């Protein structure tokens, strides 16, 4: 494995009832990078993320973390290295913000230690600080806005003290202001705190803003994995999504626009 590679996927595929969802995918996630995964509905984005975090086992191929095969790591060991923020959560979670974030320490508990220790609470305090939600510590989760709750879920993942955070559609159902806040938070965590990030998103401008590289999936296969400047061209996006796009350039990051009409 190359120096600087945290996670490597070699020829991974996954099937459901004999139907291929993901096929023969090679991927490396580098230390300190932000990798965005884009593609149309049904492209295999969520399946890929669930494979990367160990919630699914590949039907073919292999996954490794810093030269250690996933099959040699326990679920707890993998969770200490990779934190996952799924796309959806229960509508009502009867916990305060602090209690929710404390759940991120679960990978460090065991049958011999079921109660949090001082180090767990320090990790929670740091996660709340990094996420910028210290003032929400005592608030019930049910009282928060969608954007605030998403920040709490990210803080819970931060409390795992993992090297890699994997997020599935973190801005779904958020208004533009809260999308911007989540993008800003992830940017800070990646660029200032040095956290490696993999994020699946339908928002191409969100991907352009955050990512060092963008992986495009279509029908369960990789179309390309390129820089935002390379990936976000009108011809490449039409290849991935089957729809016409315009790309506005003039700054460091391209802005994409879906073209409407016949």
C-alpha-based Rg, rounded = 19 Å
Helix content class: 25-40%
Query: Alpha-carbon distance between the termini?
Result: 48 Å
What do the pLDDT scores average to? 91
String of helices and strands: EEEHEEHEHHHEHEHEEHHEE
Give the number of DSSP strands.
12
Shape: globular
Question: SSE layout and pairings?
Answer:
Blueprint: E1 5-16, E2 19-30, E3 34-38, H1 45-52, E4 60-65, E5 68-69, H2 75-79, E6 82-85, H3 97-102, H4 118-131, H5 146-158, E7 164-168, H6 176-191, E8 196-200, H7 204-210, E9 213-218, E10 221-226, H8 228-231, H9 234-241, E11 245-248, E12 255-258
Parallel strand pairs: 3-8, 3-9, 6-7, 7-8
Antiparallel strand pairs: 1-2, 1-4, 4-5, 9-10, 11-12
What this model shows, in words?
It is a single chain. By secondary structure, the chain is α/β, with parallel strands linked by helices. The protein is built from nine helices and twelve strands. The protein has a six-stranded mixed β-sheet, sandwiched between helices. It has a four-stranded antiparallel β-sheet with strand order 2-1-4-5, with helices on one face. The protein has a two-stranded antiparallel ribbon with strand order 11-12. Helix 6 links the parallel strand 7 (164-168) and strand 8. Helix 4 packs across helix 5. It is globular and about 55 Å long. The model has no long low-confidence stretch (mean pLDDT 91).
Protein traits:
6-stranded mixed sheet; 262 residues; single chain; 9 helices; alpha/beta; 4-stranded antiparallel sheet
Short description:
With 262 residues, this protein is an alpha/beta fold. Helix content is 31%, strand content 27%. The longest helix is centred in the C-terminal third of the chain and has 16 residues, at 176-191.
């Amino acid at each position: 494995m190359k120096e600087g590679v945290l996670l490597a996927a070699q020829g991974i595929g996954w099937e459901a009832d004999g139907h291929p969802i993901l096929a023969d995918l090679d991927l490396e996630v580098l230390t300190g990078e932000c990798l965005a995964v884009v593609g149309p509905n049904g492209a295999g984005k969520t399946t890929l993320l669930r494979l990367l975090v160990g919630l699914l086992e590949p039907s073919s191929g292999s996954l490794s973390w810093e030269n250690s095969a996933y099959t040699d790591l326990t679920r707890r060991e993998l969770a200490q290295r990779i934190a996952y923020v799924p796309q959806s959560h229960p509508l009502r979670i009867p916990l305060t913000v602090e209690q929710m974030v404390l759940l991120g320490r679960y990978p460090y508990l065991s049958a011999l230690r079921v109660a949090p220790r001082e180090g767990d609470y320090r990790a929670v305090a740091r996660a709340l600080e990094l996420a910028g939600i210290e003032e929400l510590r005592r608030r019930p989760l049910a009282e928060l806005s969608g954007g605030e709750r998403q920040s709490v879920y990210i803080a819970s993942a931060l409390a795992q003290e993992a090297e890699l955070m994997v997020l599935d559609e973190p801005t779904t159902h958020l208004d533009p202001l809260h999308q911007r806040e989540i993008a800003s938070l992830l940017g800070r965590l990646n660029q200032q705190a040095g956290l490696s990030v993999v994020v699946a998103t339908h928002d191409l401008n969100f991907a352009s803003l955050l990512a060092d590289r963008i992986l495009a999936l279509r029908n369960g296969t990789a179309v390309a994995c390129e820089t935002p400047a390379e990936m976000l061209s009108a011809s490449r996006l039409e290849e991935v999504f089957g729809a016409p796009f315009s790309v506005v350039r003039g700054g460091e990051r391209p802005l994409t626009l879906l073209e409407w009409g016949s």
